[in-house]
């Protein structure tokens, strides 16, 4: 492979959205940020220069980072943040992956505006396992706040309540043509295509807190890839995409259309309690060589119908349709036996309100979220650094529980006590351990879907279901033949998902809910994967420019 060099200058930039001008953090003044394009096997070297006032770190979401854990990016896990005026070079090779991934800031809520696509082309002279597309179009969903997102989350953490919800969803950074108060709102031609051709659309959900339904009117989509892994192709009119997930779909444009413009739309799937941004974002698919120039020419076009906000059975059926190709060229290497089993509850809870404060969480407490009742707190230095240099002293502990200390009826009547414990705890895994994790949603403060993301690995989703996981009845039904392989799975609301992976990548790897509000409330934990015996099974020392805390 070759080496691809990028320079990311994190800087403030003014943009106009929803009829207001706002100063946001961007990479190179672009929103959404620049694309990274590489081939499988290429080395990617990104020099990130922080010219903004905030601390920053960048995560290459879904890139496996084989033996390059220092480049993974989550602040206080693999690195200290890049401070204002400093820089850090992320250096990694893309091994065994091809498709769509993305990058985003991994500190506080900066990923609201610091994100962009990663496009991984197949190795030169190899083809896709589907018809060669005429063109490729990324579509990246986001969430827009008129307020400063740092202020939104900081206020929520101080008052213990839920953060203010966003003001709009965006498609490729734009809130859609219904906002005709600025140049950014009127022309929103997201995809231009010729008639009678096949297009590869790379869908990325970069929204902070919402799963999204997506549909293009009058067109059926063929799903061919999820999280940079090919899947058995299947047709659907509607796609559900969770934050963190990427989905590649094929779109066939009509050979003799009577219309040249069509609307696409996205809106949330939401199962939690409380408020959320219940808006729809619309964008235009326009066939080439025919033009519309003003927002008025789209009036009369049909906004595609999307499922109801809480369409959990649609989501479960859709999620179940994803299968690995499991072909000779792209086998599914599912661990058939398991060395270590874990049972993790994922859900909401509460922390006591600090003295002299008034808290807006449940019963006057602060909202929290946890895995096995442990709400993750940021250490003062990066876990990977302290682990690598044997300085774990007080930074983290390795006693993360492999199952809830007190089992309860997870999805039935919840226990009265909603309290969580705080801590910076990790699980230590010897190199090459095969791992099974059952992720169980809880109804402690209401059942809710949780997009769980694992750093440093893909995992196989061997099972999912509603209610409490049954350790006797459910495992015999696990799919070990062609389960989907991905890095982010929506744990069903009021249900569970079982994943398997082989711990063959030494380092410190975070697993967390990709709803940013749950992340901030502590729904995260860390795996420490030890070095193997062979030289090519050991994490090399950090680069010299690794930021210091
Ligand atoms: Cu896309 Cu830890 O995140």
Automatic annotation (TrEMBL):
SUPFAM superfamilies recorded: Cupredoxins
Ligase found in the keyword field: no
Location relative to the cell: Secreted, Extracellular space, Apoplast
Cofactor, free-text remark: Binds 4 Cu cations per monomer.
Cofactor dependency: Cu cation
Catalytic activity: 4 hydroquinone + O2 = 4 benzosemiquinone + 2 H2O
PANTHER family the UniProt entry points to: LACCASE (PTHR11709:SF453), MULTI-COPPER OXIDASE (PTHR11709)
Name the record gives this protein: Laccase
Protein's organism: Rehmannia glutinosa (Chinese foxglove)
Highest classification ranks of the organism: Eukaryota, Viridiplantae, Streptophyta, Embryophyta, Tracheophyta
């Amino acid at each position: 492979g070759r080496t691809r060099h990028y320079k990311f200058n994190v800087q403030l930039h003014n943009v106009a959205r929803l009829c207001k001008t706002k100063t946001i953090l961007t990479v190179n003044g672009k929103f959404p940020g620049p694309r990274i394009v590489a081939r499988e096997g290429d080395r990617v070297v990104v020099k990130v220069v922080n010219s903004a006032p905030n601390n920053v770190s960048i995560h290459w979401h879904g890139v496996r980072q084989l033996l390059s854990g220092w480049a993974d990016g989550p602040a206080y896990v693999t690195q200290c943040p890049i401070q204002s005026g400093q820089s850090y070079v992320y250096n990694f090779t893309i091994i065994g992956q091809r498709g769509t991934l993305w990058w985003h800031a991994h500190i506080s809520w900066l990923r609201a505006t610091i994100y962009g696509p990663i496009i991984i082309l197949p190795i030169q002279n190899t083809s896709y396992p589907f018809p060669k597309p005429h063109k490729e179009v990324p579509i990246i969903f986001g969430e827009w706040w008129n307020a400063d997102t740092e202020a939104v989350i900081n206020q929520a953490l101080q008052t213990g309540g839920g953060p203010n919800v966003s003001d709009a969803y965006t498609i490729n950074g734009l809130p859609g043509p219904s906002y005709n108060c600025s140049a950014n709102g009127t022309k929103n031609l997201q995809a231009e295509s010729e008639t009678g051709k096949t297009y590869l659309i790379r869908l990325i959900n970069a929204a902070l807190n919402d799963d999204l339904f997506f549909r293009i009117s009058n067109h059926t989509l063929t799903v061919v890839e999820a999280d940079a892994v090919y899947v058995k192709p299947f047709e659907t009119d509607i796609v559900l995409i969770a934050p963190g997930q990427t989905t590649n779909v094929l779109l066939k444009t009509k050979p003799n259309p009577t219309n040249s413009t069509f609307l696409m739309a996205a809106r949330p799937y939401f199962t939690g309690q409380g408020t959320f941004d219940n808006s729809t974002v619309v964008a235009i698919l326009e066939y080439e060589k025919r033009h519309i120039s003003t927002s008025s020419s789209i009036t009369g076009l049909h906004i595609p119908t999307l499922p109801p906000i809480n369409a959990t059975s649609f989501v479960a059926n859709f999620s179940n349709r994803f299968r690995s190709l499991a072909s000779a060229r792209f086998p599914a290497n599912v661990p058939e036996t398991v060395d270590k089993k874990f049972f993790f509850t994922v859900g909401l809870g509460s922390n006591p309100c600090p003295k002299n404060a008034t808290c807006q969480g449940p019963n006057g407490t602060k909202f929290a979220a946890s895995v096995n009742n442990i709400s993750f707190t940021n250490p003062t230095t990066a876990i990977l650094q302290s682990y690598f240099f044997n300085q774990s002293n007080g930074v983290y502990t390795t006693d993360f529980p492999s199952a809830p200390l007190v089992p309860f009826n997870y999805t039935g009547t919840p226990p009265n006590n909603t309290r969580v414990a705080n801590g910076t705890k990790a699980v230590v895994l010897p190199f090459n351990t095969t791992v099974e994790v059952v992720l169980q949603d809880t109804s402690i403060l209401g059942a809710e879907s949780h997009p769980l993301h694992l750093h440093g690995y893909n995992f196989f989703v061997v099972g999912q279901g509603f209610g409490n996981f049954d350790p006797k009845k459910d495992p015999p039904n696990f799919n070990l033949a062609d389960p989907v392989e991905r890095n982010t799975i929506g744990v069903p609301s009021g249900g569970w998902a079982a994943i398997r992976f082989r711990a063959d990548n030494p380092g410190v790897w975070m697993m967390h809910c990709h709803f940013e509000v749950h992340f901030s409330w502590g729904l995260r934990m860390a795996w420490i994967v030890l070095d193997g015996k062979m030289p090519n099974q050991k994490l090399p020392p950090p680069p010299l420019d690794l930021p210091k805390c």
